[in-house]
Amino acid sequence: MERIVTGDQMQLLDKYTIEEMGVPSLVLMERAGLSVFEAIKKEGFSLNKILILCGSGNNGADGVVLARLLHLAGYCTDVCILGKPEKFTKEMQKQIDIGKNYGISFVKSFHISEYTVIVDAVFGVGLSREITGNLKEIILELHKFQGKIVAVDIPSGICSRTGKILGCAVKADLTVTFAYGKTGLFLYPGAEYAGKVVIADIGIYAKPEILPKPEIFTYTKGDLKEIRRKRDGNKGSFGKILLIAGSKDIFGAAYLSGMAAMKTGAGMLKICTHKENKVLFSCFPEAMLLCYEDDENITKELSEGFQWADVIGIGPGIGLGKQAESLLDTVLSQGTKPLVIDADAIGMLKGRTEQLKNYPNEVILTPHLGEFSRLTDISIKKWKENPIKITQEIAKTLSVVLVCKDARTVISNGDKNIYLNLSGNDGMASAGSGDVLTGMILSLLAQGKDGLKAACLGVYLHGAAGDLAAKRKGRAAMLAGDLIDAAGQILDEV
Ligand SMILES: NC(=O)C1=CN([C@@H]2O[C@H](COP(=O)(O)OP(=O)(O)OC[C@H]3O[C@@H](n4cnc5c(N)ncnc54)[C@H](O)[C@@H]3O)[C@@H](O)[C@H]2O)[C@@H](O)CC1
Ligand SMILES: Nc1ncnc2c1ncn2[C@@H]1O[C@H](COP(=O)(O)OP(=O)(O)O)[C@@H](O)[C@H]1O
Ligand SMILES: [K+]
To answer: Taking every annotated instance into account, which residue ranges of this chain make up the domain YjeF N-terminal (predicted)?
Structure first.
């Protein structure tokens, strides 16, 4: 598990390290400059001539440290200070004085074509408004640069909280960020502007209790070790899933969800679907079936299913008709087991939020942003301006684990910890991916994880499977079904 912070949180962590732990600001800065120096060398960029653009704040001061280190190591380096002297922080003034003592080259103007690497140390997490005027022109000119661009902490112009572009932004090949990844480096469009992100330890420390809430975290491959199979387990110990999915003309969603659940380790699966799909399940004999006919009332059979199952899933491909509504009502009124609600079932939740809140067990909702927007009347644009906070607030209001699916999926149970997912790629933006995710989350729930854990691990695994499938098949050609086999391989590897 790794922590991610907003720029505001980072500034508090810097302050705590300096004021409470007693590490001088200049020491942190020296480590910051050194870590960028090392990252640039490691990347193997051509370092014939380097230009460092500095603002007047401490991001600029990091840039001057870097210039000194490069100069001392014998690299031809120019520094151009774009910020006004009257705005220099005391650290920036100090670094300029030190730099002058070491004889580094300060230039007043430059031609970008003379350089092989340009370092952006104009603004860091202190950027507080849109970039305009002369600075904007310079940043836009950098878009034409043919060499490599390295951003210090965050590309100038990217909002460190939302990833939004404030006026204009530097497009970096490499961003060396300090202490923790910043949300703005991972949310789009910031993620595209940051290029490769390297996180450098510079000695930031704060007692956990002073960390401003909500805390944001993400998973990496090692976290999948939590999905461990019991050596002496039997099919009962890996959980029983009742999945209500598919409808008269829709078979694929039920198949993909069910297959994803079984192939990520669930013990038993019963699929409740329309009778017409029965023949199609002949290629999936591992699944048991509970079939209904048009307008048939299967409340009794479903109740028995609720008794049998450890977890319940409803939604993929069930449609929006009367029968689908009645299935959802039966689940909400008679189900007692942990429940995953997806796709069409989310579309029918609008008048049923009280029932949702009263459900006697954990509920996980997995809307994509369109479904989220229709359910909450919050526009996608508004969500994107504050995805962390809005996801947390709605999760709390609805008393659910809310999985807002996007290129960067955000998950919250309304509590202080928010999950931001970094695995996955645009190859997953194709029909059926969401159905696969539902199956994976159900599987992890059935294997005993709580709602938040199952959602976060499931989303991480789903994205990691997407990354492996993209490597095997290519992002354009991969299909939702490819995620299922890839996930199996990933689980086996960890
Ligand atoms: N001692 C510290 O606090 C440390 C700071 N570090 C570096 O310092 C950065 C943060 O430094 P600062 O807080 O000084 O902030 P920045 O250097 O990011 O920029 C702040 C300055 O830019 C001005 N500004 C903001 N938006 C502007 C706009 N649109 N147009 C023109 N001017 C604008 C502000 O008024 C302020 O003067 C971090 O990103 C990191 O690179 C690191 O060296 C670690 C230690
Ligand atoms: N650009 C992307 N990068 C990473 N993941 C993505 C991207 N686009 C879509 N996804 C993921 O793919 C899944 C799509 O789900 P959904 O929209 O419900 O698909 P469907 O309804 O077709 O099954 C989500 O888990 C989402 O996070
Ligand atoms: K920067």
So the answer is: 10-210
Percentage of the chain beyond pLDDT 90 is: 93
Q: Is 63 annotated as a binding residue?
A: no
Question: 5, 180 in Cβ contact below 8 A?
Answer: yes
Tell whether 276 and 359 lie within a shared domain: yes
**Do both 96 and 35 map to the same domain?**
yes
Instruction: Give me the CATH number covering residue 153.
Output: 3.40.50.10260
Q: Are residues 249 and 173 in the same domain?
A: no
Cβ within 8 Å of residue 448, ≥6 positions away: 239
Q: Are residues 98 and 13 in the same domain?
A: yes
Q: List the beta strands (DSSP E) in 98-218.
A: 105-107, 117-121, 148-152, 174-178, 181-182, 196-200, 215-218
User: Which ligand 1 atom sits nearest the alpha carbon of residue 92?
Assistant: 14
Complex prediction ipTM: 0.95
Q: Considering only CA atoms, which residue is closest to atom 6 of ligand 2?
A: 407
Do residue 327 and residue 185 come from a single domain? no
pLDDT band at 208 (very low <50, low <70, confident <90, very high): confident
Q: Which residue has the tokens 């099919």?
A: 235
Confidence of residue 212 (pLDDT cuts 50, 70, 90): confident
Orientation angle between helical segments 25-43 and 58-72, nearest 10 degrees: 60
Please indicate, yes or no, whether residues 360 and 235 belong to a single structural domain of this protein.
Answer: yes
Q: Could you give the CA distance from residue 23 to residue 251 in angstroms, rounded to a whole number? A: 61
Report how far ligand 1's centroid is from the alpha carbon of 240 (Å): 53
Pocket test for ligand 2, best of 257, 364, 369, 406 (most atoms within 8 A of CB): 406
Q: Check residue 282 and give its pLDDT.
A: 83
- Tell me which amino acid residue 416 is: K
Domain count, the chain: 2
Residue 68, CB-side half-sphere exposure with 13 Å CA sphere: 21
**What is the domain extent for residue 262?**
221-493
The torsion region of residue 201 among left (phi > 0), alpha (psi -120 to 50) and beta comes to: beta
Angle at the Cα of 328 (from 326 to 330), degrees rounded to 5? Answer: 70
**How many whole angstroms separate alpha carbon 304 and alpha carbon 306?**
5
Q: For residue 200, list its beta bridge partners.
A: 178
Query: Which H, E and C letters describe 431-453, residue by residue?
Result: CCHHHHHHHHHHHHHHCCCCHHH
